[in-house]
């Protein structure tokens, strides 16, 4: 990962980044954008040069805009004029991503931070830099070299005193590392990414942090304990399903949060097979599982005083002679049964087992599940916004607020009472995929049946849409976004402060 360090007196600066901001209500003839006063003393000749440059380059000062000026025979030899817009955390996050994209050809960039800048700005800036600089590589793939390859190795943040910013930088680091881990898991092709492989990656990553325990249930044990949903979905694959349980149990915890994430390592749709175009990216169908395990590891890295258990029910939904069939009735952990109307509605079947298990055996105070559950998420809300469901206004609002602060987007949709009847089956307790009603809402209503006494302490997030980015944009990079890691860490961090 790119090195980001707080420094007081940088010397030998090669590329100097100076923040600039728009001037609100500036009169005609007055500058519309001005340099921000920095902790680092900027030499007068540079101040003069910047004042001359700003109007000419038509910099707006908006966050995300960076102008790069080359000064071949002077020091520093590059100036980056970095728009910071409103100067809030989100603006600094956008600025961080933009500095990375404008500065990949520099080996080192020094950013002169505004005098008395808030720690949140450092958090945003660092997250923007670390997330935008992510690139997925196959385990055996060398780093790119040659013309055009990024060479940026370090970013120095020049401040008058590092002390107030150390904690913000550490939070940003843990958040970015966890998000990058989730992206790695999600981007990995399914030829490599079997349920077993996923479980091994979690165990290996958890081993870097003291206090995390990882348990993995294999098919025999899943059968012995009655995890019929996970077994049914996994039955068509030569690579058996798993249930990963990772827990963080700090001594000072007041609250126990259970996180459940959908972990379909590839979704063909099963016998209700998907069309070609809809199937080609289905290696991403474990983005929920990736987010919950990565957030738990991130919480351990930050030593958050909240007890967390993450459950990742993992299965590969394949087409074969041993696959489960549309119309089969399966028995979930705890005894509820589903008539599996469509084998492509597999995510809810594995989540149902894991949620019922959580409620029955883990006695959580809160249950949050994340899943790439329905194409309907994108139909309703477009490609960047997750759908959030909860019967608790308070919980929904708290998680939505965390989402916004973290720089992720979600919108609450209703657990519509008038659709509940569509779940009724003549052969089982529930239809897994009724054909009436709204797809994402129906999936949420189905899952609610497995929340037992946690019905009012449950949040479900359908993050099918924002789990993937079609191209680089701000702090997102093409491919897996790691959606949910930032939201969960933000929310868990706030819970630990409150309680
Ligand atoms: N994994 C898919 C949902 C999905 C679609 C995720 C697009 C990401 C992008 C899920 O298992 C699925 O196939 N859902 C069905 C549900 C239907 C059969 C009730 C869907 O959305 O069509
Ligand atoms: Mn499916
Ligand atoms: Zn799926």
From TrEMBL:
Listed EC numbers: 3.4.11.1, 3.4.11.10
Listed InterPro entries: Leucine_aapep/pepB (IPR011356), Macro_dom-like (IPR043472), Peptidase_M17_C (IPR000819), Peptidase_M17_leu_NH2_pept (IPR023042), Peptidase_M17_N (IPR008283)
Chemical reaction(s) catalysed: Release of an N-terminal amino acid, preferentially leucine, but not glutamic or aspartic acids; Release of an N-terminal amino acid, Xaa-|-Yaa-, in which Xaa is preferably Leu, but may be other amino acids including Pro although not Arg or Lys, and Yaa may be Pro. Amino acid amides and methyl esters are also readily hydrolyzed, but rates on arylamides are exceedingly low
Keyword check for Signal: no
PROSITE patterns recorded: CYTOSOL_AP
Cofactor requirements of the protein: Mn(2+)
Protein keywords: Aminopeptidase, Cytoplasm, Hydrolase, Manganese, Metal-binding, Protease
Protein name: Probable cytosol aminopeptidase
Gene Ontology MF annotations: aminopeptidase activity
Chain ranges of the Cytosol aminopeptidase domain: 342-349
Class of this enzyme: hydrolase
Binding site for Mn(2+) 1: 267, 344, 346
The species this protein was found in: Micromonospora sonneratiae
């Amino acid at each position: 990962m790119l090195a980001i360090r707080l420094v007081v007196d940088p010397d030998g600066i090669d590329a100097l980044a100076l923040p600039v901001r728009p001037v609100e209500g500036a009169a005609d003839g007055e500058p519309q954008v001005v340099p921000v006063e920095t902790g680092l003393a900027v030499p007068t000749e540079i101040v003069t040069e910047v004042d001359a440059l700003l109007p000419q380059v038509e910099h707006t000062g908006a966050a995300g805009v960076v102008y790069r000026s080359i000064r071949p025979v002077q020091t520093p030899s590059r100036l980056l004029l970095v728009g910071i817009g409103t100067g809030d955390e989100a603006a600094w996050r956008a600025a961080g991503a933009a500095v990375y994209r404008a500065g990949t050809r520099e080996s080192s960039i020094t950013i002169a931070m505004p005098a008395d800048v808030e720690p949140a700005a450092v958090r945003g800036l660092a997250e923007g830099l670390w997330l935008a600089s992510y690139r997925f590589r196959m385990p055996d793939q060398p780093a790119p070299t040659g013309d055009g390859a990024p060479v940026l190795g370090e970013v120095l943040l020049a401040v008058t005193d590092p002390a107030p910013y150390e904690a913000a930088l550490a939070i940003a680091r843990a958040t970015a590392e966890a998000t990058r881990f989730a992206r790695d898991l999600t981007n990995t092709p399914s030829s490599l990414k079997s349920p077993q492989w996923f479980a091994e990656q979690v165990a290996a990553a958890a081993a870097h942090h003291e206090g995390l325990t990882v348990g993995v249930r294999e098919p025999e044990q899943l059968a012995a304990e009655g995890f019929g949903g996970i077994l049914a979905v996994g039955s068509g694959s030569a690579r058996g399903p798993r249930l990963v349980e990772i827990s963080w149990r700090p001594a000072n915890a007041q609250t126990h949060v259970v996180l459940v994430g959908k972990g379909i390592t590839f979704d063909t749709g099963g016998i209700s097979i998907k069309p070609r175009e809809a199937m080609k990216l289905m290696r991403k169908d474990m983005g929920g599982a990736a987010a919950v395990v990565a957030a738990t590891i991130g919480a351990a890295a930050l030593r958050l005083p909240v007890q967390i258990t993450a459950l990742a029910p993992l299965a590969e939904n394949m087409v074969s002679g041993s696959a489960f069939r549309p119309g089969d009735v399966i028995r979930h952990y705890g005894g509820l049964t589903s008539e599996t109307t469509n084998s492509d509605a597999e995510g809810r079947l594995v989540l149902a087992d894991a949620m019922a298990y959580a409620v029955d055996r883990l006695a959580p105070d809160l249950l949050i599940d994340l899943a790439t559950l329905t194409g309907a998420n994108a139909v309703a809300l477009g490609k960047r916004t997750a759908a959030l469901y909860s019967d608790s206004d308070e919980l929904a609002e708290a998680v939505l607020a965390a989402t916004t602060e973290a720089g992720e987007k979600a919108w609450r949709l209703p657990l519509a009472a008038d659709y509940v009847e569509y779940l009724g089956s003549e052969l089982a307790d529930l239809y897994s995929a009724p054909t009436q009603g709204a797809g994402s809402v129906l999936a949420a209503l189905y899952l609610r049946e497995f929340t037992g006494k946690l019905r009012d302490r449950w949040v479900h997030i359908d993050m099918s849409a924002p789990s993937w980015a079609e191209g680089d944009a701000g702090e997102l990079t093409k491919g897996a976004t790691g959606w949910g890691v930032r939201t969960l860490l933000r929310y868990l961090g706030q819970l630990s402060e409150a309680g």
